Amino acid sequence: MKGRLDGLVTSKVVGTRAPIDFGVEIQPIGELLYAEDIAMAIRKEDTKLLEEVNKALKSIIEDGTYEEISNKWFGMNILEK
């Protein structure tokens, strides 16, 4: 059928990985509809744990380790929007 357009709406990571992981022929177009922040849950009373986790995350982001791990497992830096 001429002029037919197939499309889907999915997350950035799924949409980027789908051609690699599943062999589907899709590509991103336009701007993101929305972005979600990545987070982890820590109980409010665990302030020392929160401090240590934030310190560790800051360290691996600054030295490039986070991006390296992200690229290995997702094929992109998931911190970039």
Walk me through this protein's architecture:
The protein is mostly helical. It has one domain. It has three helices and no strands.
- Supply Rg: 17 Å
Number of separate strands: 0
- Low-pLDDT parts are none
- % residues in beta strands: under 5%
What is the rounded distance between the termini? 35 Å
Order of helices and strands: HHH
Number of helices: 3
| Class of secondary structure makeup | mainly alpha
Characterize the overall form: elongated
Helix share bin: 40-55%
- Outline the biggest β-sheet: none
Mean pLDDT over the full residue set = 87
| Number of separate structural domains | 1
Note the topology.
Blueprint: H1 12-22, H2 47-62, H3 65-74
Organism: Acetobacterium bakii
Protein name: Solute-binding protein family 3/N-terminal domain-containing protein
Domain Solute-binding protein family 3/N-terminal: 29-75
